[in-house]
Amino acid sequence: MTETEIRTGAGDNAVLSSMKTMAYDLLERFSGRRQALVGAALTRIVLGAIGLYYYLRDYLHRSFLWGPEGVWPWENFTGSHNGGFSVYSLSRSETWFQLAFHAGAVIALLFMLGWKTRAMTVLHYIFLWSLQQRNPLLLDGGDNATVIALVFFVFIDSGSRISLDARLRRRKQVKPDAGSMRYRIASLLHHAGLLAVILQVCTIYLVSGMYKVQGERWQNGTALYYVLRVGEFGWPGVNHLIYEHATLVVAMTYATVFFQLAFSFLLLKRSLRPFAVTCGILLHLGIAIFMSGLITFSLTMIALELLIMGDGHYRRLAAKVQKVVGKRGRLEPAINVV
Questions:
Q1: Cα–Cα distance between 32 and 157 in angstroms, integer?
Q2: What's the predicted TM-score (pTM) here?
Q3: CA-closest candidate to residue 228, choices 169, 292, 132, 282
Q4: What are 21-49's pLDDT values in tens digits?
């Protein structure tokens, strides 16, 4: 064996050893400690509130909109073109409908509060999916993102923070065994679920942005003008405050496209994630306000974006808020004296 071959072999071994070390470090990092627990809790709360909103929004008209003799014919609901299983299809009885509907509302509330979170996640998914299948005419796009995210949330530990489960564990002083194999496997599944939800959000933005750049009105900067004038979703008496200003419409149209295309790339740098999430929240708050028919879609996207920021981001944000509140608290006595 020549000297060159010896050196090459030693170099290959060093690279292989370095790759193994990096793999073990990543495995230890993602199995030994769970990340984004605060964001997962906030997303759970908002998704649960959205689910509860579906039940309470039309509660007085529930039989007409969702019931067995409702506006969407039973034959269409149970026909061959139906999207899938629904608990409401098990019986055409009005009593069964009322039981299933109210059970779904209670489950949505318990999921939002974080009681038996993992089990409630599964049940909330089943009952919310069932409700959406009963009358597809009432959906706005956010429902699809919600049910996909709920599948991934089965694996996400969304009950470790801001939940009844967390409060009960603190009261009983129960701490997870971070060194056990069960905890490590669950942690890996937790991070896999986080990644899946984040990829879902990135896909929504990227596909939406790619479709927009192919549209003539998005290319010439007038798309937002026409969007704000859609009578079905617009807010009469308010939207004209924007679409009557040509420069603002053009700027916001291009900014929307650029942001949606750049969103996935902004997440690659950890320090830019709060900026990306803030822009996303502002975008969907604007949609919720000026396109009032898409409120649940906007809130769903905001909920999923809250998952992107890490616990460190939320700790720094909380510290800044406490600092501002503390300063105001110290100023109040002086103001009162004056």
A1: 14
A2: 0.86
A3: 292
A4: 666 666 777 787 888 999 999 999 999 99
Alpha-carbon span 232 to 230, nearest angstrom:
6
Dig out the tokens for 52 from the structure: 């509860």
Do 240 and 215 form a contact (C-beta atoms < 8 A)? no
Mapped onto helix, strand or coil, the DSSP state of residue 86 is coil
CA–CA separation, 319 and 312 (whole Å):
11
Cα(111)–Cα(130) distance, integer angstroms:
16
Which pair of structure tokens corresponds to residue 168? 């009960």
Residues 6 or more apart whose CB falls under 8 angstroms from that of 100 comprise 87, 88, 127, 130
Q: How confident is the model at residue 143, as a pLDDT?
A: 83
- Per-residue three-class SS string for 190-247: HHHHHHHHHHHHHHHHHHHHHHHHCCHHHHCCCHHHHHCCCCCCECCCCCHHHHCCHH
Contact 121, 166 (CB under 8 A): no
CA separation for the pair 50, 149 (Å, rounded): 13
Residue-wise pLDDT tens digits, 245-269: 889 999 999 999 999 999 999 999 9
- Tell me if 19 sits within 8 A of 83, measured CB to CB: no
- To the nearest 10 degrees (0 to 180), the angle between helices 295-305 and 142-153 is 30
- Cβ 160 vs Cβ 166: under 8 Å: yes
Q: Crossing angle of helices 117-134/142-153, nearest 10°?
A: 150
| Pair 104, 127: CB distance under 8 Å | yes
Candidates 112, 139, 141; CA nearest to 124 is: 112
Supply φ then ψ for residue 291, to 5 degrees: -130, 75
Look at residues 114, 110, 107 and name the one whose alpha carbon lies nearest to residue 169: 114
CA distance 144 to 303: 14
Long-range pairs for 266-274 at CB < 8 Å and ≥24 separation? 267/198, 267/202, 267/308, 270/310, 273/308, 273/309, 273/310, 273/313, 274/309, 274/313, 274/317
Residue 199 tokens, joined:
């990829």
